[in-house]
Amino acid sequence: MKGIFALHRQRYGVSLTALVTMALASAAHAQTTPAPQEEEPAPQVEATPDAAPEREGDIVVTGSRIIASGFTAPTPTTIIGEEQIAANAQPNIFNTIAQLPSLQGSTGTSTGTFSTSSGQQGLSSFSLRGLGAIRTLTLLDGQRVVGANVTGVPDISMFPQLLVKRVDVVNGGASATYGSDAVGGVVNFITDTRFKGFKGNVQGGVTTYGDNEQILAQAAWGTSLAGDRLHLIVSGEYAHDGGVGPGDFGTDLAGKRDWYRASTLLNTGQTNNGSPQFVYSDFAQPYQYARYGLINNGPLQGIAFDVNGAPYNFNYGSNGAPLGNGRVSNCFPGNSFCVGGDLSGAPGSGASLVSELQRVNGFGRIGFDFAPNNEVYLTVNVAQVKTNNQPSPGYNRPNLTVQCANPFLPQLVRDRCTTAGITSFNFGTSNGAFPDTRVYTDRRQYRFVGGLKGRFDVGGGEWNYDAYYEHGTTTSHIDVNNIVLQNRYVAATNAITLNGAIVCADAAARAAGCQPINVFGGFTPSVAALAYVMPQNGPMQRTRLTQDVASVNFSGNLLDLWAGPLSLAFGGEYRHEFYSVHGDPYGAGVSTLSPNSDAYPADPLLNAPLGSNWAAGNYKNGRGAYDVYEGSAEFNLPLFDGGGAGKANLNGAARVTHYSTSGTVWAWKIGGTWDTPLDGFRLRAVTSRDVRAPNLSELFAAPTVTTLPNFANPFPPAGAVQAFQNTVGNPNLKPEIARNTEVGVALANPSWLPGLSLSFDYYTIKLDSVVSTLSADQIVRFCFEGNQAFCGGFVLNSPVQGGNFINVQPFNLASWKTSGFDIEASYRWTQPLGLPGSFTLRALGTNIREFIVKAGIAGVDPVDQAGANSGNTPDWKWLAIQSYENDAFSLTVQERWFSDGVYGNQYVVCSSGCPASTGNHPTIDRNRMEGAFYVDVGGSYNVTSSIKAYFKVDNLFDHDPAPSPQTNTGLDVNPALYDTVGRTYRAGVRFNF
Question: Is residue 398 part of a domain?
Fold first, then answer.
């Protein structure tokens, strides 16, 4: 089959072959089509680097390291070919793979755009089974890739995508075969190491709103020299995605998108009066600040300022009136919101929907066959990925103290101060006249692999070997523009008149260069004032990661038995992981800020030893490393073959791993397959013990400080406060241990209906000693409810500027359990209704029956996250494809769907007579989050035998995302699950000479 997005599943022992049987039993070739009518020979599936150079009869599946003609492993595996990748016409191969139903919670350009400090904006990484990207092992030609982030996950944008021949997605534990991180499974990119010729792809795209303009240019060249013994391949790629957003304050999104409604879970503050604690509402309005300023406490509460600085009575919504104590009647004190009214200061819509991304990739490979079926090779991959995003507009400051004597304050308000007998008041502002924050990331990767692979004879039997050494380095630079230094901001807003001039009140601040700022209205600060408050030399973070891997593996047939050869694979690996990171002195802190430093001069207002002076982006210094030693063995034992009982085999593997940080741990698997006597009917099962060692970030992370500008403080006086979340690493963490079990049944290509494929696979995963932390909100809530174990790590009522904080740290406390099943069905109809060509139907679905998270802490109840569409594990997720193609053109329709769900299964839904609301089971008036149904269409036309023009329209009906209500002022959407971009058009030309 050509040119359709056919997701080939090896269901004879791996997953069900979607349209064909790939190397079933005695088959020596891997087919991409089951149609016996076609004259075209079936292409050979290339062996992974665990094998020698490609040769007929060799089949290697990522789920196993064994090479054996006709051998199939019991672990379900989805295989996506290069033609199917091309037919989906995505600017990044990551987007194609992430559409598979078993992938849940993958990250990309649409996720992390609201963040300033995470450093993961635009990072494309896979998550299988909803277990997170850190529990999915991503490989390139069966080899590890240096991480693009301190979490250790690689960035798919850095892979040589045009040379990818196929992608194997192992839907299940594979730690015994490939090592740590393969708890959810493996995604293995296989490149074409024997490519000859010249090919390329030029593609452009744009959304229906005229943004996220996309340009993609790819080219690859390959040749063979020296009697077809020397193989040279080079490729280059350039891609640019323009991104989406930001919008403005209020509810205006970028590009006239109209789905944002400021949806919020309003906290009534009532937990035991029979009414729900949380109430869903659209168009929620924060009542502690406004776009150009709002007095939010005391006798003048309710006075706001327009763009010209003129005072007016703020429109609170909810028919609310200021009470003079920081609260508003008829509104919601738990998180300080009203409904309706003046939404002009709400910052949620001002975040980027999609990060702008630019990627450049260069790849080269040289291989020399020094003997038949033996090769020495070297690969070089150099890549750069640059992203940027806007987390929010302006600078949200809900708790500023303003002196009534401030000369910028309108005289009318100063007179009101005198009448009320006050000298200061509390003030909240979004600083709508400030430049908007922008986060820039620049990741660069240098990866080198040298190796040997081939075959040799031992005792009349043939064995395969693969040995390689890999060194990879990633440098990651993060720079944030237009972030304020908080103490300088406070000093600049506290103005007085001195000798007839308006100056900063603090003499020490004046001496350090302080320039006054007028925060009453939309007055843009002077250049000098902005340079003082938000200097353009920070925040910044510089990270360097290195990975060194030395690996050797052997495989072959140990001896011939009654039902076939006993196959064996064994090997060993050494790995060294290292990282170092440092931030700027204002964020990271130093013992002394040098007064001679032009970039970061000493300032008496700044906290020199501890840092954390920025409003966000306070990156810290740190470093860490660990070593890994591994040994593994795998076998395939044929049980019987023929005699009326069908054919069966038993597959097992074991791996022992020693981590320098956490000791020795074992992983293993045992499984088998049975080709029953029934035509096309197969059974398979596998169970395994899998491991994930804590990564560099979890072990050695420098303290990360995240600003929580509107944190809900339940302690008197309750209300929203600004606080810092301090996240630190834990070098005493131990590996996570998982138990995976999968049982499946398949019907593939029966003689009575060729082209039909059906399968059903059940899986269950139990993960213990999960590295996890409670959220800042959970820590505070559990303390408030009387659990003293959570009360020692935060301060929320500090009178000191920047004194509020919540400490969070990872521990091996939690356990997860998830189970569900995969379904696949496909049928191919050749010459439908007498027409030339073929028509194909296909559907893949994943159901999550349960995803139970236990925090492992007394007083914290388990939560089932299955069906929580505010996360990434909907009950059902489907991908369906219908396509027609012939020698001239192809047409494809694709549907993507996931089911309705809830905000969270921890909620108790009620409208009256509610039980007591708790942190474990809060009460809520509504708990339903709609699913989504997307339709994509595409097609291609063969201009010549070497040139193909194509088009693609994603989200044809421009389906809007469902609200994912917040409890703060964030953007109420879940980009990990929903399409936030809208209809997208793409077109391009491919050539292959």
Answer: yes
